[in-house]
Every structure is written in structure tokens, then in C-alpha cells.
Amino acid sequence: MAIPTYDIAILGSGPVGCALALSLADAAPDPARIALMGPAPAPRPAGQSIDPRALALNHGSRRFLETLGAWPGHAADILTVHVSQAGHLGRTLIDHAELDVPRLGCVVAYDELLETLYAGVRRAGVTLLPERPPRPLAGSPVRLMLADGPRTARLALLSDGARPQGLHREYGQHAVLATVRAAAPLPGRAFERFTRTGPLALLPHPAGDALYSLVWCVPPERARILTGLPDAAFDAALQAAFGQRLGRLRRMGEAHAFPLSLHAGPGLLGRGLVAVGNAAQTLHPVAGQGLNLGLRDVAQLAQVLRPWLAAPDAPLQPLLERHVRRRRPDRALTLGITDALPRLFATGNPLVRHACGLGLAALDLLPALRKPLARHLLQGQRL
């Protein structure tokens, strides 16, 4: 049988795909036998950001990216997270000192993170194929139908963000994203406020001490209205939803809205096909766990594949099956937390909402309850 064109083809050049390529290249005898498929990041105009997204990366994700030499130059530390529920008593604080870490996490600009990762992949000698990745055909080897002809790979890793098939839930919410300036900022403090329409998060922004990244989850029609409001009306609506903890809030630039849904499918899609990141699961943005879970997929898959990269003729499928089994508990717990929280706090049942408030108060008073949840949000389950 002819030798496959590549040992590994990674389909998707977003942050998860780039981190995967960089992790595997470090262990590969010949990094050019690894192909990363997908467009290169679009160049950013000086001083401007193309993508409105800012990403919350927890402590475990930062350490992982630092080991890859792919930590971006600008980041805003999250030292404390303040969790509250609008209209009800009860709140909890999660602080880095209690968990004995220098920070709970950081916020980085999506486009700067992607540029940093892609530059690292380029330096590592990975083969870059800038066309949009096709859907591969499982087998031994995996077949890839490219514009200039067919290619083959021993293994294809899907990180392209295509919605996985399996568990699906529509939340009836859109996330409104914007950057806001606070008159009375609290350095290092992030906020997660649960409202009747969905969670509202304000995260320290890497572009300035008084700036915050807003993720405001609301029904689709409300999102359409909010993104069309002039600055003063948007500011008033945000102030009414969030309160006065940061003083006067002012929107900086435009707001953007994205629909929210849960999709989760199998990690192993067939012989020689594995899904990671958004190709395996897309989550509600509450608690900012989506990319962090995807990076844990990457770290553990790269660990499993390191010995195989040195001897790619060795049996592969048992390694992939073991990887999927090892990832199952972390995926299930993170999916469960991020699915339950927005639905519980957005319920119209007053008894449930009061119970949620009591739950926040209990978390604040009882470290034995708070610390396990905080530890999981800090780093997930890492084997």
C-alpha cells in the first residue's frame, strides 16, 4: 500500500486546530508530515481588531499555551469572579488566592491569540493548506478530496467548528458582544450576573484597565433591538441590567450578536477520524468554558499520540478509543454545568430562582462546596 500523503491532517485552522498542530509538531520527527487545513488569519489593520470576540482562558489553558510558546502579548488577568442573580439575594466570590494560583484566568483578544498560534505553527514546519477543509472519508488511510486532487492521511483530526451531530439544544438566546468602558473599574474582577433573560458577563479587557468585554445573553428579538440601539440607549439598558458596581458603563464601538445552542457528538467519528473542540462540542458561553474544554481535548490527544508519531505504522485505533474514553468525564461534567446554569437561572419559577439565590449564598459561605466547582472551572479534569 502506498504511504499516505500525511501522517496527520488537521481540518480547521482556528485556535484549537492551531494548538493541536503546534502540540503534535513538537513531538513529530518530521513536522511537514502534519498538515493544517484552513485559511490563514486575516491581517489586522494597525490598532484595530477584526473579530469582536474576547476569550476567557482559565489558568490551565494559559499554562498549556505557554508551554507551546503561544501566549499572546496582551492579556487581562482575572483574579476574582463575582457571581450574582438579578433581583434576588445571594452572591458568591471566587478568588485566586483561595485556590493558591497567581490568577484564575486571563482574557485575550481572539484575533491576537489566533495570530500567535498560527505564527507558531508556521515556524514549526507544519504543512499549511489554506483551502477550506473538506469532509474526510474514514478509512485506513483517511481520504481527503482537495481542489487539486485527492490526498490521504493516516489520521484526520476535525477542529473545523462544524456542528457535531448528536445532543442538540436551542437556548432561545443570542449573545450580544461588545466592549464597554467603566467609570469605576475594579482591576482583575470579572462578573457573571444571571438575569431572567440569560447570563450577563463583564470580563476585564486586554486593551485597557477600564475596559470590559461584554457577553450579554438575551432572546433573539431583544438582541436585534440592542445591537441596533444608539450608544446612549444601549448604555442605559446595560446599566439597568448590570447595576452600579462599576459605575457608569459606556459602549465602545459596535455590538454584535450570535445565536446560542448546544451541540455535542461523539469524539470518534470512524476509523482514523477524531473530533476535538467545537467539532466535538459547542457550549453555552456561561462561565467561558468552550475554548478551555477544547484545549484540554488538544492537550490530552497530543499526549496520547506522542509515541505513535515516532512509529506511525503502529496500531492507531486503540489509542484513539482510549483517548475518547479518557475525555468522557471532563466533557460530561463541563457540558452539564454550562447547560444547567443558564436554564436554571432563567426559569420563570420563583421557587427555583429563590433556590438559586440560596445556592449562591451557600457557595459563598461554604468553601467545601465552592472549591470543587472553582477547581473544575479553573483547569477541568486533566489526566
Automatic annotation (TrEMBL):
It holds the Pfam family SE. SUPFAM superfamilies: FAD/NAD(P)-binding domain. Keywords: FAD, Flavoprotein, Monooxygenase, Oxidoreductase, Ubiquinone. PROSITE patterns: UBIH. The keyword Oxidoreductase applies. InterPro entries: FAD/NAD-bd_sf, Squalene_epoxidase, Ubi_Hdrlase_CS, UbiH/COQ6, UbiH/COQ6_monooxygenase. Its cofactor is FAD. The keyword Flavoprotein applies. Residues 271-349 form the Squalene epoxidase domain. It comes from the Bacteria. This is UbiH/UbiF/VisC/COQ6 family ubiquinone biosynthesis hydroxylase. It comes from Castellaniella daejeonensis.
